């Protein structure tokens, strides 16, 4: 029924190509013959399959129990018949093994069953191989080469294992070609997942943390610790660091000489700008550090609701919020707290208590030097905005450019939202949320407790 030499060659090829243990393949062949017998003859019958690993010959035996009186001929054999066929030493209760003849119908079913089970065993073996190989690399960075590109993912070859990284896990604006090297962070390794056992990501906050470890020796040595990370992948990130040794500047260590270390990471992240922030166990100080260069006039933290109320200079409201709320969202995710940002003017209108407990007082707020610095920054930002807008027109793009005018109150800005809702996406719109919550963005699931 079977060509022993061809069977041995097939087993060898599967073992070599799929890197699956030989015993798993042999077990699959045996299971296939057993199922074929059940389908062809009796589902309750039991059989034994032997494979000669030297010749490749397969033999199937029906297991029969020796009885005095036969009640089921598929499972039992009479004592007298058993003695005639298998010797006088056979007694009641013994098992004997009756050879099964390979008829044509049985042979076809057996081949089909063996094929199906071997494929299943191969899939299970590959899954187990990937699980064992990557379990130790969970929550680490790995790298490989793009083997193929599909509509929804890049297929990355890592030492012979093909791992998909879905497009939604790629940094916006990135584009890779076949044979390009790509590295990513492993979010999760599962033993069985119908989509992918390896959850790979280049947008996860911990991807930035691991890159910092590889680029900054002080972090890998434990001298400097990364306390928290917030990212808007491809745009901007904030990372809070702390030094465990006096005399070691955590921010300087991360930035490197002339910004060399941080530039290397920015390059890997497709130009994502990275702000390095000094972590502090005092939440108010940490929030103020995270908002820099924005000055804080008043800050009040509601511990019970994990919520922070911040008042900033009128001139720095848009800077605190950022385009499309990005700056405020990064701060909220970095400090893991809901934040509410008000300009001084708006805070007074809403009768919010001005505590003057931030990092700027009344005298400095009205100081011409402070106002001059703010105006210079606004002029520079406005210049960059005009360049971006002109470039966008040249490229005929339709992405919204969103900003907040400092000379409008929050209520006026919110009112203007409705007025612009009917505009096309090509038009500029005003967008502002007085409360910036860490649940507002699609990436914020990473920051949930």
TrEMBL record:
Keywords: Cytoplasm, Elongation factor, Protein biosynthesis, RNA-binding, Transcription, Transcription antitermination, Transcription regulation, Transcription termination. Residues 202-279 form the Transcription factor NusA first KH domain. Residues 284-349 form the NusA-like second KH domain. Pfam families: KH_NusA_1st (PF13184), KH_NusA_2nd (PF26594), NusA_N (PF08529). Residues 7-128 form the Transcription factor NusA N-terminal domain. GO terms for molecular function: DNA-binding transcription factor activity; RNA binding; translation elongation factor activity. The keyword Transcription applies. Participates in both transcription termination and antitermination. Belongs to the NusA family. This is Transcription termination/antitermination protein NusA.
């Amino acid at each position: 029924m079977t060509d022993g030499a061809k069977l041995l060659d097939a087993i060898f090829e599967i073992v070599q190509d799929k890197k699956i243990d030989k015993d798993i393949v042999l077990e699959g062949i045996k299971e296939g013959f057993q199922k074929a017998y059940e389908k062809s003859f009796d589902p309750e019958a039991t059989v034994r399959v032997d494979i000669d690993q030297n010749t490749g010959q397969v033999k199937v035996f029906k297991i029969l129990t020796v009885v005095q009186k036969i009640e089921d001929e598929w499972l039992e054999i009479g004592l007298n018949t058993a003695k005639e066929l298998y010797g006088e030493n056979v007694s009641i209760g013994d098992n004997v093994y009756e050879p099964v003849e390979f008829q044509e119908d049985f042979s076809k079913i057996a081949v089909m069953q063996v094929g199906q089970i071997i494929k299943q065993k191969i899939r299970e073996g590959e899954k187990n191989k990937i699980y064992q190989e990557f379990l130790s690399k969970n929550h680490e960075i790995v790298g490989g080469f793009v083997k193929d590109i599909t509509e929804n993912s890049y297929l990355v070859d890592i030492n012979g294992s093909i791992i998909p990284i879905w497009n939604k896990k790629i940094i916006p604006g990135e584009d890779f070609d076949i044979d390009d090297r790509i590295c990513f962070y492993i979010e999760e390794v599962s033993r069985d997942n119908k989509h992918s056992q390896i959850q790979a990501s280049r947008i996860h906050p911990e991807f930035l943390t691991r890159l910092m470890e590889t680029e900054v020796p002080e972090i890998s040595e434990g001298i400097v610790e990364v306390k928290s990370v917030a990212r808007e992948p491809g745009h901007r990130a904030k990372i809070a660091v702390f030094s465990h040794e006096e005399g070691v500047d955590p921010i300087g260590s991360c930035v490197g000489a002339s910004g060399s270390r941080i530039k290397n990471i920015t390059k890997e992240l497709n130009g994502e700008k990275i702000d390095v922030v000094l972590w502090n166990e005092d939440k108010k100080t940490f929030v103020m550090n995270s908002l820099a260069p924005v000055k804080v006039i008043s800050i009040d933290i509601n511990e019970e609701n994990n919520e922070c109320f911040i008042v900033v200079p009128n001139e720095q409201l848009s800077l605190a919020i950022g385009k499309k709320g990005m700056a405020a969202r990064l701060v909220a995710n970095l400090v893991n707290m809901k934040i509410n940002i008000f300009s001084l003017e708006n805070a007074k209108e809403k009768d919010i208590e001005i505590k003057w407990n931030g990092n700027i007082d009344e005298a400095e707020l009205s100081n011409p030097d402070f106002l001059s610095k703010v105006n210079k920054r606004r002029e520079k930002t406005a210049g960059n905005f005009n360049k971006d807008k002109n470039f966008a027109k040249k490229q005929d793009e339709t992405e919204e450019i969103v900003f907040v005018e400092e000379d409008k109150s929050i209520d006026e800005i919110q009112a203007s939202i409705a007025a612009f809702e009917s505009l096309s996406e090509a038009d500029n719109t005003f967008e502002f949320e007085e409360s910036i919550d860490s649940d507002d963005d699609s990436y914020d699931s990473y920051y949930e407790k």
